Amino acid sequence: MFISKVMTKNVVTIDKDADISTAQEKLSKHGIRHLPVVNENDLLIGIVTDRDIRSALPSSQSTDKDSIAKIASSKVEEIMTRSPISISPLDTIQDALLLLQKNRFGALPVVDDQGKLIGIISTRDLLREFIEVLGLNDPGTLLCLLVEDKIGQMKKIVDAVSEEKISFGSILVSRYWEEGKRAVFPYLLTQNIGPLKTKLKNMGCSLLDPMDWYRDSHPK
């Protein structure tokens, strides 16, 4: 899915000549943590975050009012990250996830070919989209199946679920540390999965607790 479909389009921005206290007020007022900095042509020139502001301001224990006032009146330009990493509206949510994870960011500005800011995508946007894609808004049950890594295994699982007249919310497949194995995560739109579990076990699938899967997914 393209970034343009999931990004926040009405972006709260700030000018580089605004003071830090104004940036702080904007973040608080809108309940956000990232403020893209743009020029008069809406070209992205920087970004300032709540962390940048906290780092710039004195400790809450400070009693030096003159120092506090001086720093608060300093310009955004002094603390912003210049030429920040951005993403294109034609990139995918997978691209955004990898960039956010690699750089440990909480959000990415979205710019067009001319560098004009047209949106922002955050981890919150991505989580919302994945919840929708995975069908997690609908009540159901998540299973974790350990199966052989070979052609036809997915079809067997889908057929078994369909025979029980159970609908899928989603299904994901992950690598597993044990050679020749894959972990399959079907999210099923039912709470009654007893008979299906028995059927899957009889087919040779190993059922794992999804909550324990990550801890079991690496060699001891």
Helices and strands, with pairings:
Layout: H1 3-6, H2 20-30, E1 34-38, E2 44-49, H3 50-56, H4 65-72, E3 81-82, H5 93-103, E4 107-111, E5 117-122, H6 123-133, E6 141-142, E7 144-148, H7 153-163, E8 168-175, E9 181-188, H8 194-202, E10 206-208, H9 210-216
Antiparallel strand pairs: 1-2, 2-3, 4-5, 6-9, 7-9, 7-10, 8-9
Describe the structure using short key phrases.
CBS-domain; three-stranded antiparallel sheet; 2 domains; five-stranded antiparallel sheet
Backbone structural class: alpha+beta
pLDDT average, as an integer?
89
Q: Predict the CATH topology of the largest domain.
A: CBS-domain
Helix percentage? 25-40%
CATH superfamily of the largest domain: CBS-domain
User: What is the string of helix and strand elements?
Assistant: HHEEHHEHEEHEEHEEHEH
Could you describe the 3D structure shown?
- There is one protein chain.
- This protein has two domains: 3-131, CBS-domain (Roll), CATH 3.10.580.10; 141-216, 2-Layer Sandwich (Alpha-Beta Plaits).
- The chain is α+β, with helices and mostly antiparallel strands and 220 residues long.
- β4 (107-111) and β5 (117-122) form a beta hairpin.
- It contains nine helices and ten strands.
- The two termini are 37 Å apart.
